[in-house]
Amino acid sequence: MEILIILIVSFIAGIVTGLIGASGVMIVVPALVALGYNTADAIGASLFINVMAALVAAWTYYKNKNINLKQGIWITIGSVIGAQLGSFLSKFIPDIGLGKAFSVFLLLSALIFIIRGIKDIKYGDDFFDKSANKSNFIIKFLKSNVTLTGLILGFFVGILCGILGAGGGVMILLILVFIMQYPLHIGIGTSNLIMAFTAASGTIGHALTANLPLKPSLIGSVGTVIGCLFAAKFANRIDEKLLSIIVGTVFAILGVIMIVIL
Q: Dihedral sign, CA of 251, 255, 257, 262?
């Protein structure tokens, strides 16, 4: 029964990763804890599973030419550095319901993506201002300074990720789509690439501290690879409008799940 539960949960997590370029940690960790694993082991296994899912998704999006390698590398470096600072700062931040706040953030993001899909807003359109004249300078600056903007954006995302403990993939996707104005497919693919590196770093850390149980990690990897492969192939075949609505719907579901379990 335990094997079946892990396979089902990891399969769902893989679908989430393949569709929106975000980690399924908020699904996998509670399930493993419910099965009797301690939190540290559950997080370690979830990170390992996340690496497998992100690699499969990134490769699928890459084959469909939906990854920006140049920008992704620098955001990865910035996020890794920022995550270390965020992890250090987290001990000084009082518990004021950050998890609940992130849940609300997910729900608001869901609304934005759904509206974006319904209005059929394309790559290069400004979501809040149709004239887009005022934002052109900023966008051009960001796109013309790939290294600097990648490091800065990644750094701030890493800080938030280190403080919250999750959400890096979600925030990177929002930055790529709404600030850098990448097409949604490329934003999801690049987010998966970045997440693969950051999750691998966390997995190594847990392995060194003996918090990486092999059984759920390996079993979960099977389920997540199958789910992620299915979801990533599906996402690359549909248009931007439908994908945006699907991403918003998944965000809404995850936001509700976090409100319930936190």
A: positive
Tell me the pTM: 0.80
Selection from 28, 32, 36, 37 nearest residue 257 by Cα: 28
Q: Supply the range of the domain harboring residue 160.
A: 2-261
Distance CA 217, CA 241 (A): 35
- The phi and psi torsions of 130 (rounded to 5 degrees) equal -65, -30
Overall number of domains in the chain? 1
- The DSSP output letter for 247 is H
pLDDT in tens, 51-87: 899 899 999 999 999 998 877 788 888 877 877 776 6
Buried b (16+ CB within 10 A) or exposed e, 174-208: bbbbbebbbbbbbbbbbbbbbbbbbbbbbbeebee
Determine the average pLDDT of the residues in 96-106: 66
Return d(Cα 72, Cα 146) in angstroms, integer: 9
Q: What gap in Å lies between CA 56 and CA 214, rounded to an integer?
A: 20
